[in-house]
Amino acid sequence: MHTTKPIGVFDSGIGGLTVVRHLIKQLPHERFVYLGDTARVPYGNKSAPTVERYSQQCAEFLLTHDVQCIVVACNTASALALQHLRATVSVPVIGVIEPAAVYAYQQSINGVIGVIGTRATIGSNIYSTTLDRVSHGNVRVHSTACPLFVPLVEEGWLQHAATRSIAEQYIEPLLACGVDTVILGCTHYPLLLPLLGQVAPAVQWIDGGSPTAKYVADNIVQHLHVNEHPTVPPTIPEIRMYVTDTSPMFQQLATQFLGMPSQEPVRVTIEHLTAVSQW
Amino acid sequence: MHTTKPIGVFDSGIGGLTVVRHLIKQLPHERFVYLGDTARVPYGNKSAPTVERYSQQCAEFLLTHDVQCIVVACNTASALALQHLRATVSVPVIGVIEPAAVYAYQQSINGVIGVIGTRATIGSNIYSTTLDRVSHGNVRVHSTACPLFVPLVEEGWLQHAATRSIAEQYIEPLLACGVDTVILGCTHYPLLLPLLGQVAPAVQWIDGGSPTAKYVADNIVQHLHVNEHPTVPPTIPEIRMYVTDTSPMFQQLATQFLGMPSQEPVRVTIEHLTAVSQW
Q1: Does B39 touch chain A (CB under 8 A)?
Q2: Is this complex scored with an ipTM above 0.90?
Q3: Which positions ≥6 away from B72 have C-beta within 8 Å?
Q4: What is the pTM for the complete model shown?
């Protein structure tokens, strides 16, 4: 029934499925191709040139599926590789950082915005730079790396006492700076929202997945083709799921991130990725 | 001055330097070539075929440095790839698991032994199988995966309240089974020894690095060549250090793991690793 090309999404692992969840909500008629680079996860503790090369290989794999655009669901890859991808890839490439920054700027009342993310994302200063640009210098930004949140989420310790104590330690300096809004600069963090809401109930937590999906729906997909969708969206969205390594935890985590049961993923080897890539 | 070949050591990251530390103590005259696969760290959450392939590529890189033997310092790689490496590599390959198991069996008084490690190592049951074999069925083994220990150590949270609470949760079921000896089945864990000693003071904690180094000194190195060492060992051991990705944290962590200042590492790309490998 579909005459349109699928939307490509990649992430270092399966956290990017939190972005796919929002994309499905905004674009229930679209088809998706998802690649999780689980053989090299995480990206957040790797160097910029390495993240750039891995991202390029992921993007080129998605291009072999004739995608209409590529959503870089990984914050680290969006922070370190977006410019490079835009210069080398023939379809629109959308990162999660600018939509999250714009939305946080709109939501903040006092103009003091916090950002939490991986060491690589925070070290890149990309959120500060972007918030400064979109607000014309009208916000103050305070950032902190939360490297333990990803392993805690992957363990499913979403309400554990240790997670709470670690979250308090990470968030306290941001609260001391008077932030009223904090960007969740990593696709794993939305699963911690219930706990974070308890740790800092006055803060507005910004999940970049939602504004990114809205941006794609408003600016990318409708510009590319005239929709000829059936009036009723499919009850089960079509997501072709690829991973570079299989894991016994995949299905359980994927369901949690996606908010619905996920298809069995197809494994593609790193050798295949590098073979289709020029990089 | 050296007429002998260097000893090759690889690990998924830099944790293997805790094993190098013991090797230097046992073999102060030897030279070492170390490879940390930091572009793909960690191995502990990857599948067996992926760990096997990565390990093969690391071993083949070390062979290009004409090493006399290869010490697989990574427990996950020792658990999942040792047989494969021994079948394909032309020099002796030594893992950390059997030496640790033999030593734990010798040390345990009540024959109830605990094992902690990554999800992949524990899931492989390699320690149970090995302990059963070396003890002729005379020990009971209780294992538990501690996936949060690696990120906690890499954060340097060695005495943090959250680390203590997580350690208590991980170790409590082992204590309930009556273990008197616990194997630290991951090269990051020796850095947690002070904390673990407080959490369970009656337990003997076995760091596999020490018995592995002793095994290499007694069974491998002296059998391979007649030593013609100067009588005084070098004050700074010769370690050629390679990594597949650079990290700003490297130097600090390496010094901690090695117990002395480390050389600046040379970066080799994954593409280089796969190019020298047949796999």
Answers
A1: yes
A2: no
A3: B10, B55, B59, B78, B81, B82, B85, B93, B94, B95, B96
A4: 0.90
